[in-house]
Amino acid sequence: MKKQPLKYQFYATLLDAYSDYLHSDDIYSEYWGYSEEPPFSEEEFHEKKRLELINRINRVPMAWEDSEKADRGTTFNEIVDCMILNCKSKKMDIERICDIDDNTNVIALRATYNEREFTFPIKICREFANYYKGAISQVYTEAVLPTKYGDVKLYGYIDELMPSSVHDIKTTGKYSVGKFKNNWQRVVYPYCLNANGNKVYDFEYNILLINERVSGDIYETFIEYYAYFPKTEIPLLTTHVESLIEFVEVHRELITDLKIFNKHD
Question: How far is residue 210 from each of residues 99, 126, 231, measured CA to CA in Å?
Fold first, then answer.
């Protein structure tokens, strides 16, 4: 039988962006539900999330992607990867900061990325790097998901892959328990790995909370653990992907990046 061509290609974090759009009312309520003067109405915010999603599909750089917080997360990820692999970064300059009274005692690492400078305590960097001892960093994974609209390629990059678990590093300035439970990486990455014969069912979000204070940043670490249950989660994943397909088809005339339709210019 002739193999059917792939109809769509979705990366894992695009599924998260679609979830944000679907739950825009909840997000609005969390941030501005009790505000007497919100910056926009619920309807305006919903439309804003719709346009953001279309821009993400079209790979249009958005303001938040050039934000200091986004760059800080990228920088911390790169520092941890370099420590795990014991190598220099090809993306940014990383330098050691030593105690002024003992120039052999490293107290922090400083990196420059996108013309921004970030500093992290060496203790925090080592905590993450040691936790991932033996991991493979930035692992690309993909697999085909059958849907009622045709086959879809799901893909993405795993931050840290251990022999029996998948790990994604998150940096945030605000955290509450279960913050990332609705993110789809925890389903997509195990799905892809298992589809390729790698039986991995444990997923962790490893979170660095950075509380910015006038007196200096305070760092805390958290773990969100999730077990992957194919029988229950593949149907949920399929439903979500089919819903995203319906969205992109409705907005097809606005989509300029044809990669999502498995087409190339």
Answer: 22, 16, 37
Asked if residue 18 lies in contact with residue 245, where contact means CB atoms within 8 angstroms, the answer is: no
* SS3 label, residue 61: coil
In a domain, 45, yes or no: no
DSSP string, 4-24: PPP-EEEEHHHHHHHHHHHTH
Do 234 and 136 touch, CB atoms closer than 8 A?
no
Task: Enumerate helices (H) and strands (E) in the chain, giving the number of each.
Answer: 7, 9
User: Is 206 inside a domain boundary?
Assistant: yes
HSE toward the beta carbon, residue 126, CA cutoff 13 A: 7
Dist CA 85 CA 97 (whole Å):
20
Q: Assess if residue 142 is contained within a domain.
A: yes
Residue 16 pLDDT greater than 60, yes or no: yes
CB atoms within 10 A of CB 120: 24
- Residues 246 and 172 grouped into a single domain: yes
Please state, in angstroms and rounded to a whole number, the distance separating the CA atoms of residues 145 and 194: 12
Q: For the whole model, what pTM was predicted?
A: 0.90
Full domain range(s) for residue 76: 67-133
> Contact at 8 Å (CB) between 125 and 79?
yes
Confidence of residue 75 (pLDDT cuts 50, 70, 90): very high
The whole-angstrom separation of Cα 191 and Cα 254 is: 30
The separation between CA 195 and the C-alpha centre of its own chain, rounded to angstroms, equals 21
What average pLDDT does range 172-185 have in this prediction?
92
Distance CA 107, CA 126 (A): 11
Total structural domains in the chain? 2
Collapsing DSSP to helix, strand or coil, 159 comes out as strand
110 and 178 belong to one structural domain: no
